């Protein structure tokens, strides 16, 4: 299972507020047919699932701001694809917490 951190920034929206765009992205994640789990943070979204599913979801997410009037979209993706063990968001957090 891979974990991605994705940040999608609509540009050319005519406003500095992006919360309505973020809300639309979250709605897409809530209804995604792929087997994913996500966590919204103040600065990005973390999604776990198969790498194939993650790329499919990210592609859809990237398109949403365009559908809602953005003239340009900048998407940053960070991928953690560990294959020696089955990882998850919860497992990564527990690993750190155990060491505190």
Automatic annotation (TrEMBL):
Superkingdom, taxonomy of origin: Bacteria
GO cellular component: cytosol
Domain Thiamine-binding protein: 4-96
Coiled coil: none
Protein family (similarity comment): Belongs to the UPF0045 family.
Protein name: MTH1187 family thiamine-binding protein
Organism: Paenibacillus psychroresistens
């Amino acid at each position: 299972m891979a974990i991605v951190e994705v940040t999608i920034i609509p540009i050319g929206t005519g406003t500095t507020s992006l919360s309505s765009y973020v809300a639309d992205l979250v709605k897409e994640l809530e209804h995604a047919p792929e087997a994913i789990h996500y966590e919204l943070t103040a600065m990005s979204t973390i999604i776990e699932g198969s790498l194939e599913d993650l790329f499919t979801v990210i592609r859809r997410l990237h398109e949403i701001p365009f559908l809602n009037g953005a003239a340009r979209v900048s998407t940053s993706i960070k991928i953690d694809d560990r294959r020696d063990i089955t990882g998850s968001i919860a497992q990564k957090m527990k690993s750190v917490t155990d060491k505190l």
